[in-house]
Amino acid sequence: MTLSRQLIILITVLLVLVFAGTFYISVQNTRAYLESQLESHAQDTATSLGLSISKHMAEKDLATVTSMTDAIFDRGYYRLVVVQDMQGAPLVERKLAVTLEGVPSWFIEQFPLSTPIGEAIVMSGWVQAGKVVVQSHPGFAHRQLWQNSVEIFRWFLVSALVVLLLGLLSLQLVLKPLREVEQQANAIVNREFPIIERLPRTLDLRRIVLAMNRMSTKVKGMIERLERLTEGLHRQASRNPVTNLTNKRFFNNTIKNLLASPEECSSGLLALVELKNLKEINENHGYQAGDELLIQTAEVLRSVSKSLNKSYLAHLNGGDFALFVEDMDVVEAAKLGQALSSALSGLADTSHALTQDVGHIGLAAFNGSQDLSELFSQADMSLRTAQSEGPNSWHLYMPGELDNARIKGATDWHTTIKSALASDKFVLQFQPVFACCDNTILHQEVYVRIREENEQGEAQLLSAGLFIPHADRLGLTSEIDKMVIVKILERLREEVDDNTHYAINISPICLKNSSFFAWLERQLGDNSELSQRLIFEMPEYGAVAQLDDVSRFIQLIKRYGAAFSLDHFGRSQSAFGYLKTIKVDFLKIDGSYLRELQASAENQFFIEALVYIAHGLEIKVVGENVEAEQTWEILQRLNLVGGQGYFLGKPV
């Protein structure tokens, strides 16, 4: 029960008690006054009648005595009028039955009126001739008492309504700061930290508001300091101190995780860039000049990588740089080689470049079969070939035969995807996410495949890593996402267990499609009960590039009870500040942080700090790519909510 309601009830109870006491006292006083008036009235009448008939009693004129008694009794104010002789025998007796009209019987029973008897001696000279007995009728007095009570009650009722109305208005004003404090507390829970500027005049409430303001500021400062500390330590562990690019260890972990995850990356390109004369520049011009050349190189490489989707740039060591780009074909590889070559040529005009030959580029295509070591070896072979081909040259190493799925052109992929949509060749697989506390299933992540036949007529499933990049380029991603959502909603309708939840991957490209938004809102609205069992996932690197669209998307799905998850968190190395602006429910830590986690104290610290920050923002943290029992045990110790990976369960 709210405080305002409690206060209203208290005020009402007090008003009722005050009224009950006032009403009772008023009625009793009125009653006592009326009884006194009845007694006085009876006595005065008895005395007056006794004097009036004394002469006639002496003369024994009973007719006149009777007439005078009737004259008084007929007024209707008396219950009993009796004229007696000296022996008490009635000479004249008049009685009127007590009948009360307009007064409820319960009121008469609760507040009865006593009617005292008035007596007077009738004298004949100095001798007593008889006695007059008079008893007033209570009817008029009861009516008066009832009318007075009704007026008192009406007055109280009007007064009580006025007092309650004024009390409500006063409470609204007095308790307004408490509602603002409640909103402030809810905002803090929702990762916002507002300050109440207008302080209440009530001293106690003012102290509460000031305390809440201090707490809001303190919590905000604590979280921001922890974010800065964690980001700073993470930057030191993952960045090169000179160029501020990703260092070799972090780059290797990220790319190794990508190559081992065909769902995310089935093809790509690795570029190795090596500066030619860095050692001579350091010796002839000093290390500061060498650092300046490294910084300039990093800037031109960063400008090239910014135009590429899903690219990862690193400073390996010395004059060696690496760039990996997902989903890049041979034609695009040639364009990249030329762009990198032009970037190095532009550095030849700097004051510290000794010759026009600044460096060389070695490119190696990833076809889904190599591991990181093989891919680096192929790129290094290509780099050595480029060094023999002239200044700032580049060379592309091509691996062996590619399978049919990877050599399809844009037209072929368009036909394949459209045909799969039209003939329902898409297949869904599910991988469980297990809770760290009790190993129960939190939800199932949905993976999409295309079923097709190879040249031998055998059925095979194409993973999303093969066709989603082409679907993005062909503008077909939203159609695939719609198909998956419809299939999951149909599956949920058939589910016996209503605790099953599904995580659906949404492409960031769909957020730019207004028709997709409208379609999704209709689907969620038509399936409002099922929507509460959906989790929409999006990769972090795609979400941070369009936070406004992501925020709008989250607001839409949360209106219908669905949740939102950020996938591959930490891969983009973005600052954590944006987590306070978008209402994320889950964070899935990128698998690059979990590989060989038992040997990486830095990654364990990063995950532990991230979990602490996320808990403060009411975000659940999940580890992905759990491939070993030791990793799972560490995640449980670091207080993550859940984990996902082949060690726990494969997609089926």
Describe the structure using short key phrases.
rod-shaped, 5-stranded mixed sheet, alpha/beta, 18% strand, 8-stranded mixed barrel
Structural account:
- This protein has 652 residues and is α/β, with parallel strands linked by helices.
- The chain is 51% helix and 18% strand.
- It contains 19 helices and 18 strands.
- An eight-stranded mixed β-barrel has the order 10-11-13-14-15-16-17-18, surrounded by five helices.
- β17, α19 (629-637) and β18 (642-643) form a beta-alpha-beta unit.
- α4 runs parallel beside α5, α5 runs antiparallel to α18 and α11 crosses α12.
- The radius of gyration is 48 Å and the shape is rod-shaped.
- The chain starts with a helix and ends in a 9-residue tail after the last strand.
- Residues 401-406 have low confidence and may be disordered.
